[in-house]
Amino acid sequence: GKAGYDHFMQKEINEQPRSLRQGLSERVDELAGEVDIGDLAYLNPRGVQLVACGTSYHAALYGAALFREAGVPAQAFLAHEYASAPPPVGDDLVIGVTQSGETADTLSALRAARSKGATTLAVTNVVGSTAARECDHVFYIKAGPEIGVAATKTFASQLTALNLLATGMVPTKDDRESIAALRDLPADVQEVLDDSSAEAVAEEYLDSDAYFFLGRGLQYPVALEGALKMKEITYKHAEGFAAGELKHGPLALVTANTPVFALVTGDGEQARKTIGNVKEVEARDAPVVAVTDGQSDVERYADHVLTVPESSPRTAAVLSNVQLQLAAYHTAAKLGRSIDKPRNLAKSVTVE
Ligand code: M6R
Q: pTM, whole model, 2 decimals?
């Protein structure tokens, strides 16, 4: 059942501290500053291709960025595009990111990769799923069953699993910090859930024409995911943009009736640049909702702040996403939408 919640989606959002703890348990050795991903640590890929659809594609974009950060060429592909024109695969490891393990497009992409001789790895939630059975290797995200059509806790677990895989396959000098942040992640997510003011934000902007989401680097996939969640359960127009793209077209859409969610964590170059974009939308009178850990001065330009605890860049993405899940959920709830079964959508898309 829904364990006292109004919707499965709400239950699953609130379950994230537990589902993340489950996915991390026995996989992080904090004393040694290492992660344990078993034999997958020896795959030693020359390059990585990730294939996925929807929310899982956003996780794949994040995973690709992590491998690239560690010096391994990596790219995420929409599975349907990949399957219809597979790129050269060489010695690349091909990772299928699929919660259900049954998405037809993702299975086709993985089959195309295998037929070209690639080694394949399924990152999935479902034990014994088709992807788990057909791939050479499998890594379970261990999120537990997800009933809501909108993927929430499984996205958090996918990001975390890809973090573990990238760290385990390609160790780097930054691992200690990001492993410590992984240890704190479940408690940090709990803090977001306990303190979020996303419901007030949802209330204030209920009548908006559209919702925009801006992110850069590891926060770019989170911006895409925030928009997907908003559109699928509220039926409102929502778009996620790479913050740097704003001036190349999307800025034309920005008005006083299009709230902009800006993902700004840390105080580095990326935060500074995204704050530049925030100033641009503010100058067009758009309401700004900053999702921030308070390390930069983005609050000065924001109408609302959704706070996340300070963390590493990798885990900051997971934490920021929880605020966007809540913003979408509360908007849909106030609009009286069919949150667990949005119109026209199915939990698992088993036809191409
Ligand atoms: O089971 P999969 O992860 O392969 O599903 C892929 C997409 O259909 C899925 O992520 C979809 O976009 C989400 N349910 C949307 O919330």
A: 0.98
